[in-house]
Amino acid sequence: MAGKRRSGKVVKMKRRNSKIAGLFLILFAIYILSQGFLSLTREHVSIYEVTEKKIADDNLVRGIIIRNEKLIKSDQEGYINYYVADGAKVGAGTKIYSIDQNGQIYDQLVETGTEDVKLNSQNTSDIRSEIAAYRAAYSTSHFDETYNFKYNLDNTISELTNERLLDNVTRILKEQGMESSFQFGSAGESGIISYTSDGNEDLDMNQITSKTFENTSDDPKQLRKAESVKAGTPIYRLVTNESWSVVFPLSKEQFKNIQQEKTVTVTLKKIQAKVMPQVTTFTMDGGYYARIDLKRYMIQYINNRYIDLEIKMNDEAGLKIPRSSLLKKNYYKIPSDYVVATQNGNAILEVTYKKDGSPEYKAKETQILSFTQENSLEDQEDQTYCYIPVDDFEAGTRISSDTIGSNLFQLAQTEQLDGVYCCNKGYCEFRPVEIAYQNNEYCIIKKDTSGGLSAYDHIILDPKVIREDDIIY
After folding, report:
1. Angle of the 145-176 helix axis to the 121-137 helix axis, nearest 10
2. pLDDT tens-digit readout, 331-378
3. At residue 254, does pLDDT exceed 80?
4. SS3 for 146?
5. Under 8 Å CB-to-CB from 384, ≥6 apart: which residues?
6. With left for phi above 0 and alpha for psi between -120 and 50, is residue 199 left, alpha or beta?
7. Nearest 5 degrees, angle CA 418-CA 419-CA 423?
């Protein structure tokens, strides 16, 4: 039994047509290759997600300071001592300095010294602040600031010794009676004392030209560095008013933007103080300029002629989109009365005429955008207009506000609306936008535009590489 041969049916399988399968594989490979080639040669479509943001233009400018100031000169030769610190406010008659013609009192003051002067917590804090400010602003490219730092420290320390020095002078004069060779110099009017000069104390608006801004480096001369002075030598500067002005150049775009603002937010960079002054713009020698008038912080800049400003010219909130995504589309402008309601929504009643001349009204669904135009006249209401795509209607088409033709309107007036291609649905769809503000790169658009965009919509970054209704691959 084991060697008995089994028998059974053998089913033959049909051999597939290898030619058809091969042709199919070849066609499939060609399709894959062609799609790959098209993807390599097709211009890349970049998509941008709309966000809700705020744009503020910060413009850095450097301006020149105009103040009410004058240089005070010595009327005699001799050895000089000062009794008022730089930046101190003084009244008329305040003793500012003294001139010792023969130097006897000067020598005694030097010998007397100020060993018993002690620093309090405020004095220590002032010195530390000077050191910290110098370290924060230190730059190897501006080594000249080291001399200003030394001057500021000397000035801070002199504030501690001025009162003691004046007491010593009074005592020596009382004991030795040498008034004939010694003279006090007092302030002729109230103001603020400075011991630097840059030669521009007489500067006013009439003297400012485009050349004024060719070199904007501060180069003050120290007036308090000499032990002896000659007659006619400038010995201090008196600023007689805390009101001051800053004039600065602008680019053409900055000039245009700043003209639209009644006030702007200005940051005084050195002290990081923000002010909101009124701005006056003007042109000069083919250039663009502006002026701001201030009533605070002059003392902090009393030894500066030039000042760095950061001007915030625009501050708009809304939907942020790139300028590169913008394009324009033609629309017919129609009164809002010609939009009618249907079961499916709003539509336009298109009027056609039969052979016998009788009118026929057909509701045509289309994109309808509604905008309100503000009227400048107080006694007239704002007018609402609607826009429908030019592509959906031929020029000259008549539309009606009702089915009896009581009011007819002929499509003729067109306007170009700003917009973008939205691709939320997988294809390009034009969406209108209303631009609230724009700079070189981005726009802020209104959020409530009819048929417009919302936050997190996706738009085409460069509409030149695609057309409306194209499918996004």
Report:
1. 150
2. 999 998 899 988 888 899 999 988 888 889 999 999 999 887 665 445
3. yes
4. helix
5. 336, 370, 371, 372, 373
6. left
7. 175
